[in-house]
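At your convenience, could you comment on the folded chain following this short note?
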Amino acid sequence: MSSMKTTDPPIVVDCKISGTRQQLWEAITVRDNMIEWYFSNIPAFEARVGFSTQFPVQSESRTFTHIWNVTEVVPRQSITYHWTYTEYPGEGKVSFEILDEGDALKIRLTNTVVTDFPQDVPEFRRQSCIDGWNYFIHDRLKSYMDKKYG
């Protein structure tokens, strides 16, 4: 079982998306939109450097309290946050970038490991992370944008 390590290349997920740059920006930065496709229990979110939020996510019998700290914001272009868990070591950096793709838009998710994650927790396997981001971007975000703006 290979867990997420700093020696791994970043996980990158690209997806063409419906809507305008502003609509996509609001989908990834406005809490009332984020809870529709991302995590339903995000208590608050602001696209500003220094903003921090945390919330628990259950997986089987384990709790993962997500802690997000926003580190970079370029309005309508990109947002990056530092991502850790209360219960486990390891830290990552997650960036969402809005890119032009011909006459359409593309979202690029990049997940970079900053500090190694534990070996013995299935949710920290690299494949689990890849599957999770593909689900959030290709299924959840894309469906949300198609339904709202497609």
Summary: The chain has three helices and six strands. The mean pLDDT is 96.
